[in-house]
Amino acid sequence: MGILKKFILGLLCGMAICLATAASSSEVRAILFPTVITYQINDEVTRSDGEDIILNYNQHLYVPLRSFAEHMGSTVEYAPPGSYGHSKATVSVYKLDDKDFTIFDESNTVGMGKFTLSFDDLNYSAPLLTGTLKFNQSLPTDKQLVVSLLNQDGDVIAVSEQLKLAYRQADEMVAGEITKFSTEFPYIDEPDQYSLQLQIVPQTTWNFNQIYSESVLTGAGGLDGYPLIVGTYIDADTVKLNQSVEIGARLINISDDDDITIQEDLFFYLDIYKMENNSRVLVRTLKTEPFTGNIPYRKGSYYTSVSWDQKDENGNSLAKGEYWFKPRLPSQATGTLSSDPEKTVTFELEDSMGANQIILIE
Questions:
Q1: Is the distance from CB of 170 to CB of 145 less than 8 angstroms?
Q2: Residue 68, SS3?
Q3: Cα 205 from Cα 291, distance rounded (Å)
């Protein structure tokens, strides 16, 4: 083990030198040669197959990180630059055993471990669950992962957002891979006793998202006085020509006391237009899928999106330039409040809730 420790120490020191050199020069000269590496971990000895290419630079040896880590019983996750907003490439090394994963979905496709559920500051932050996932099988593209919070009787009292993985989508993971995750629950007081249940559920067109209760919602008139409001969003306001654009709508419950249940189908038209001679010229109208269901209080929300292919109503590709979109809202929505579930309520949706947003096609 002493030799192994020295080798690891030398490897780490060498990595530091390599990084410093790479930062100061775009060219590195090194010797590459195939090598058999022997790993002795306690009483177990394993060897590589000799296909690993070792780099000799300034009398320091550099080994392939993934191969080295996996022989040491670890798992490596690599994310290229640009993944999930990270400007640099990211490498995560996980040293976890199967026993570290204690909660599994019914099909044993995914295991969850090393997790923490925090109810620390419910005046601001919603309950936050973080941890690690191991994929025993790949997740189908039409499925997503959520976690249910159960009380001591086994009843579901809350369901989380879709789990957000550190660098990839869940359906991009393959068998044996490990990654970090986070997710939030609706605002709920911490139960005296509870358990968690990992679930694989179908992808839906509308997805839950908890907005921090103290966050400020800005927009045109209509935010105050109405428990149900509408917001819009876009994945990127500047896009390349012929690049698809995801345009979305969001339903938000700003009540501090009541959940809202929408009983009848509620959908929106998203109008895309351009300005010509100070007048709007409609080029395309998109329609969301309908929504029904429960929206939790304290800025619980559901969101959906539709894809615009940069074509007009006749299927013609559009030129570069500035375009705008605005939701065309129904005047009302029908539902109930949790404080009086037997009473039908009509929610007024003022047109001023739907602000105009720009799309710049370059």
A1: yes
A2: helix
A3: 9
